Amino acid sequence: MARAKPPLFLARAPYRRRRLRDAARLLPILGLFLLLLPLLWTHGDRTSLSAGDVIYFFLVWVAMIGVAAGFAPGLSHGEGTEEEED
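RE: above sequence
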């Protein structure tokens, strides 16, 4: 007899874990872009940081920590399950 075809959709939990891993992999790239963004909006030849730039860097840094902490619980569950094999 013919072998049964696997379903065309993924189960909800492994799909969400994969998308969460994808988002976690893109997080450093987003962070780098956000930290370099002030260089794009500088006017003239500026050699020092203003107080606003320092506050912006600190807020981006804190936000990146918060987003990574939000991703962490979802990334720690279900590692190495059989459902996620390609």
